[in-house]
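Work Package 3 (structural annotation) set out to generate three-dimensional models for the target panel prioritized at the project kickoff. During this period the team completed the workflow that converts sequence records into discrete structure tokens, so that structures can be stored uniformly alongside our sequence database. As a representative example, we reproduce one entry of 319 residues exactly as it appears in the project archive.
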Amino acid sequence: MIDLTDNKTIIITGGAGLLGQHVVDVLHGRGVPEPVVPRSDEYDLRYMDDINDMFRDSQHPDKEIVVIHLAANVGGIGYNQERPGELFYDNAIMGLQMMEASLRWGVEKFVSVGTVCSYPRDTAVPFKESDLWAGYPEETNAPYGIAKKMQLVQAQAYRQQYGFNAIHLLPVNLYGPGDNFNPASSHVIPALIRRFYEAKRDRLPVVTIWGDGTPTREFLYVRDAAEAIARATERYDAPAPMNLGSGQEISIQVLAGCIAGMVGYDKPGAIEFDRSKPNGQPRRCLDTSLSTAVLGPYATTTLRDGLAKTIQWYQEQVS
């Protein structure tokens, strides 16, 4: 257990991103002083010199440092297919160097945030943390998933050799206000919201979605994820990875119909599936028994309520 309000310097890499902004807000609500949020235009975390500069500029002689590493190069299936090398290198090198530098700078605790994409393609549902090494990840996002999984190996090795307090969290797909709606790199929920919104606006007769609609996904509202990460930073100190999720799965077909209805695109039979495009992993749903036991209930936002908030936010941005 650590008290984040007790004379700490909290560094949140990726703190300006979707998840990072909410982690910052959650910590503010706990009375944590303003965290350090290194920006990529000042500190490129792919380079150790920049990381050392970031630590040098952030340190206070009388304060312990806690690092929450959220920075990542990430996107949807199409983005993963186009940039596998970039995704592997960027995510691996940032994680490896951030943890190595944290060890050297005497960081009190390092929170590594991985991804559900690290799980093997055909993992039995619900995914248990012990399943993580039971096979190879789904091919379209394997480079990203493996790069992030390297942080778990590093955390466990550094704990064993150096006594370094590093933990590894495995969140499912996140969504919420402030999400990335760029069609070139967005994940499924913002991509669907934008496409159905534009189809309604432009009175398009059909919306075509990648795959056949049968894959299932689990989603965690970003504010709930931020709350879980804050609690894990305070309470979790074990070497084993910890799943973070809602414990509920939904098919892409059902999700698409739900979003279409909530956006107001209600043309009967107007959703088509392009079966020539990849489905991605067949099913995703996590066993969250460990995180619920350690952190208490945190996935308190229903998918429908979270979608409503996300859709409202998007509509406000484009209106």
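The chain is about 40% helix and 15% strand.
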